[in-house]
Amino acid sequence: MSISYNNLWKNMIDLGINKKQLAEMTGISPTTITNMAKNQFVHLETIYRISIELDLNIEDIVTFNYN
Question: Could you tell me which residue ranges the HTH cro/C1-type domain spans (predicted)?
Answer without folding.
Answer: 15-61
